[in-house]
Amino acid sequence: MASIKEIKIRIESVKNTRQITNAMKMVSAAKLRKAKNSIFAARPYANELNKMLELIKIKNKTIKHPLLAESDEKGKNALVIVTSDRGLCGSFNANLIREAKHYLQENRSADLICLGKKGYDYFQKRKNKITHQYIDYFNKMDFSISREIAEELLNIFLNREYTKIDILYNEFKSAIQQNIVVKQLLPIIPTKIEEDKSLDYLYEPDEKTIIDEIGKKYINVSIWRIMLESSAAEQGARMTAMDSATENASDLIQELTLNYNRARQAAITTEIIEIASGAEAIKQ
């Protein structure tokens, strides 16, 4: 059994850890509220852009734009995996990495594009081919950052480096629930809507230019929304993990305090016995 001093030091250490985990939980809760507000603001805009693209695609059967047209050629795929830059967020990254490994098993020629340090560190050590990496971007969380990433993805796609680019990320549902999503980023798959045949449209300047502009805006907003979704899911996972760690620390402190009291009581009892034994020996 550990000594009284050792148990006391352990209790103080666990108390300090509990303070840290509780503070991290509070910080994550504040960041989560901010990220949720940003997500709710970004979702409608992205959805409306997607509907506009589908409307143009329906009304113009002859146009075959690279951002909308599925390629008949069998080419290379790329997977963008969106992980966090930091740990201490439960199984947030582990679930994503497991899904990415499953994707790579089914698409053995696919290249990786890593957004987030944890995914990059994992796959780099295992010698997977990583063509692009974006590290420490979640610390800034600015639309200009997501636009930079989106423009680079658009360029590599339009330059025909890949026929398809998929993206893997954690979609935010609640503080305790995140859904892993794998979806096609490029070419864009517009949302299916019902065609209103009574309406006809004139485009200015022309369909291709409009698709160029709306398509780029849609990818910019999509990357921004995915980063917000991932950030909110990360903060929710971290808040849950730190809350659990705080509770576990409290339980451990209670157990250590009980052991401390038992050890202290045993020491006092031993001292009393020794004093009594000494007094009895003097009498004899």
List keywords for this structure.
284 residues; Pyruvate Kinase, Chain: A, domain 1; 13% strand; single chain; alpha/beta
What would you say about this model in short?
This protein has 284 residues and is an alpha/beta fold. It has helices spanning 4-59, 92-106, 117-125, 143-158, 207-283; strands at residues 77-82, 111-115, 130-134, 164-174, 177-186. The protein has a single domain (20-241), classed as Pyruvate Kinase, Chain: A, domain 1 (3-Layer(aba) Sandwich).
Describe the structure.
This protein is α/β, with parallel strands linked by helices and 284 residues long. It has one domain: ATP synthase, F1 complex, gamma subunit (Pyruvate Kinase, Chain: A, domain 1). The protein is built from 5 helices and 5 strands, in the order H-E-H-E-H-E-H-E-E-H. It has a 5-stranded mixed beta sheet. Helix 2 links the parallel strand 1 and strand 2. Helix 1 runs antiparallel to helix 5 and helix 4 packs across helix 5. The longest helix has 77 residues. The radius of gyration is 29 Å and the shape is elongated. It starts with a helix and ends with a helix. The model has no long low-confidence stretch (mean pLDDT 86).
